[in-house]
Specification:
Blueprint (H helix, E strand, L loop, with lengths): L1 H8 L13 E6 L3 H10 L5 E5 L3 E6 L1 H9 L4 E5 L2 H6 L15 H14 L8 E5 L5 E7 L11 E6 L6 H17 L4 H9 L1 E5 L4 H10 L55 H11 L3 E8 L4 E3 L12 H11 L6 E3 L1 H4 L7 H7 L8 E6 L11 H18 L7 E3 L13 E8 L12 E4 L7 E4 L1 E2 L4 E6 L10
Parallel strand pairs: 7-8, 7-9, 9-12, 10-11
Antiparallel strand pairs: 1-3, 1-4, 2-3, 5-6, 6-8, 10-12, 13-14, 14-18, 15-16, 17-18
Length: about 475
């Protein structure tokens, strides 16, 4: 079996100069042998999405498909000519990527945020240049945006992988959302007044610019940075290059042509180094690195399915994050596949370099290049996790909440009381008035009711109950 695996894996090292378009295939898990194959070879496969013991969607070339079928695996073609399919979705009158932003357009958008909301959004600044000399831009959202104050800090970043266009959109839309709602939404205003939110929309500018060159109307599938590996291949996967537990073969690749190539050494890439230097120079308590896709909310460890010492806290925070979008929470190896050299393992594990950082990854949506109609819905389903994490930054209060299962009721007149026991992490005090009951009626907009604080950490609020014929949650 080992010889067969080695033979099949050799075909996945695809040259950066290949002109053949990619195909999205589904690798069905029908037997334990199928899952064993994925577990052994996930470090070299370009897995886009999946669910453990069910299926894996893999970006492949024709030779890869024939080889897998030749080994007897059940393969389904989901989308041939992937790049052309993605590009065909963009009919917006804007050029390039339709409604989505190229690298230059992202820079212009961030500049426009500063002009529109100078009271809360800073001038953009660079955390460093890429290997090809392009700036990795960042901006800060706070009530004194041009001053680094002594306030809890949180980092949102995106596009370590260049083809994940919605990840970058999530970040710039978050900045816009905070600016638009500051001064009118009391919750957003309080968060911006008491936090420093740092946003890096495109961590891999060279890869994004390369996709602009090869596929100017959208759909480019370049993932890595643009390092010349010296053997005819290009690129290192920046999300396999972080030093903590770097180098495992089951969660990254040592072959330069592979999409998950980890580089020649831990933290070898200048882009990774800039991120690490920037983070080490700050006091971030939470980081969310946004990716696409898969409807997943992931947390450490990535290199193993063993739990971190803070598993209970990660589990509770992830549960809060997925309350309204229904994403699947968990460690990568439990829900999909192992990752070595990833962002959040270094965030949490490298505590000799910085304070403990609770790192998360949201895998947004169901496509690398979503239709234009999905841009706003994908943002809407991820704004609550972002707001929740901003609130959690610094004090990490309100993380343990216990309540009885809310009852089913047909009482549309009187409603019912909701009780919850709240305990601050590490014994921290609960902020007075911070307890909120969130509810919907009949699939409508989210309603919030401030909970009354009682003795012993008990909080109560009145749910008005559904209107007749509506139903609620």
């Amino acid at each position: 079996m080992r010889l067969i695996l080695t033979a099949i894996l050799m075909v996945f090292a695809v040259s950066a100069f290949a002109v053949e378009e990619h195909t999205m295939i589904r690798f069905h898990i029908d037997t334990a042998i199928d899952q064993d194959y994925i577990d052994e070879n996930a470090g070299r496969l370009d897995i886009a999405d999946g669910r453990r013991e069910q299926y894996y969607d893999i970006v492949a070339m024709e030779d890869d498909i024939e080889a897998l079928q030749g080994l007897g695996f059940r393969i389904e073609i989901l989308q041939p000519q992937l790049e052309s399919f993605y590009a065909s979705q963009y009919t917006n009158s804007r050029s390039n990527f339709g409604i989505y932003h190229t690298y230059p357009e992202m820079v212009e958008f961030v500049d426009s945020l500063r002009m529109r909301f100078p009271e809360v959004i800073s001038e953009k600044f660079s955390i460093g240049q890429s290997i090809n000399g392009n700036e990795i831009w960042c901006f800060r959202v706070s009530d004194n945006p041009d001053v680094d104050e002594d306030e809890p800090e949180i980092l949102f970043d995106a596009m370590h992988h260049a083809r994940e266009i919605m990840a970058g959109e999530m970040c710039i839309m978050l900045g816009e959302y905070l600016g638009e709602n500051y001064g009118s939404d009391p919750e957003i205003t309080n968060l911006v007044d008491t936090r420093e939110v740092y946003i890096i929309p495109m961590g891999n500018p060279d890869g994004v610019l390369y996709n602009e060159q090869t596929n100017p109307t959208g759909g480019g599938m370049w993932r890595k940075n643009r390092r010349n590996n010296g053997d005819g291949t290009y690129g290192v996967d920046l999300n396999r290059n972080y030093p903590y537990e770097w180098g495992c073969d089951y969660g990254s690749s040592g072959y330069p042509g592979d999409e998950t190539y980890r580089g020649t050494s831990p933290g070898s890439e200048i882009e990774t180094q800039h991120f690490m230097n920037f983070i080490n120079a700050h006091n971030f308590t939470i980081r969310q690195s946004v990716h696409t896709y898969g409807d997943l909310t992931l947390y450490p460890w990535g290199y193993t399915t063993a739990n971190t010492p803070d598993e209970a806290l990660f589990r509770e925070m992830a549960a809060q994050m997925v309350m309204y979008n229904g994403y699947t929470p968990g460690q990568p190896g439990d829900v999909l596949y192992d990752v070595c050299g990833g962002t959040f393992d270094w965030d949490y594990g490298a505590q000799d370099e910085h304070g403990k950082i609770y790192g998360f990854t949201n895998e947004i949506g169901s496509s690398f290049w979503p239709s234009e109609a999905n841009r706003q819905p994908y943002f809407d389903e991820n704004i609550w996790p972002a707001i929740y994490l901003i609130g959690m930054a610094g004090n990490l209060t309100n993380v343990t909440i216990e309540h009885d299962q809310l009852p089913f009721t047909a009482d549309y007149v009187y409603g019912y009381d909701v009780e919850a026991m709240a305990q601050g992490y590490g014994g921290a005090d609960i902020v007075v008035g911070s307890g909120k009951l969130n509810y919907r009626v009949g699939g409508g907009s989210l309603n919030k009711v401030t909970m009354r604080g009682g003795g012993g950490g008990m909080y109560t609020a009145r749910h008005p109950g559904p209107t007749q014929g509506s139903g609620g949650e």
